[in-house]
Amino acid sequence: MKFQCEACERLIPLESFRMEGGGLVVQCQRCGAESRARASSQVVLSNEGSGSSQSASSEDASSPSLPARASSPALRVVRGATVPVTLDDESLFTPPPGHCPKCVSSRREVDTSCAQCGLVYANFLAEEHQPSEDLRGAWRSLAERWEEWEAHDRLLTLAMGRGELASAGRLYRVRLARAPDDAVAHRAREEVVRRATLVVPTEVEPSELSAGKRRLRTAAIAVLSLVVLMLFAFVIQRVRMLLSGELP
Predict the structure, then answer these.
(1) pLDDT score, position 156
(2) What predicted TM-score, i.e. pTM, was given to this entire model?
């Protein structure tokens, strides 16, 4: 179970809480703000006779009204229920009407370009923003077992390894555009942002090239050392022959 903090609007796991004043108090782990949920209470008076009812009414009328307690942010609990979304390709890969086809942000009918990504809608080409076939197949399979977080983790790992993490983020935004209350999609989108901030080397060719250069440099140093050693031995031998008088 998760709750949405009214201060920072994040989905936070409901791990710890306390009871205060007959209500539930939950503190956001991200921003520290407290959200409260007050239980609805109803006073039921026993109807034992008209005299007791009239006396209770007179007491309520004569008693001073208590000051209203300051309103506190309402606690929104978001349950991980499956949001019904059709599994056809248009619903899985295409944003619904009223959204930018590139970044999936909200758009107005009178707009000619997106205020978020700068896309000119008349110049949009759908084939330039489609994920690879491997990612499309993984996304279709994920839609059939949407509640399994391990499947989401595998898809994000695949997208990260193929350098398509941005495409995976767009697919989750398409899902949220069609199902805004999908808690699993919200969690996955936060995971995309977290993984995008990690420093992961995606190119291995420079490291392999440097390793080859190191091996070549080592071999050159070995050959040069051998040549210097042979020249040094030749000079020593000539000096000995000169000192012994063997040379003319």
Answers:
(1) 94
(2) 0.49
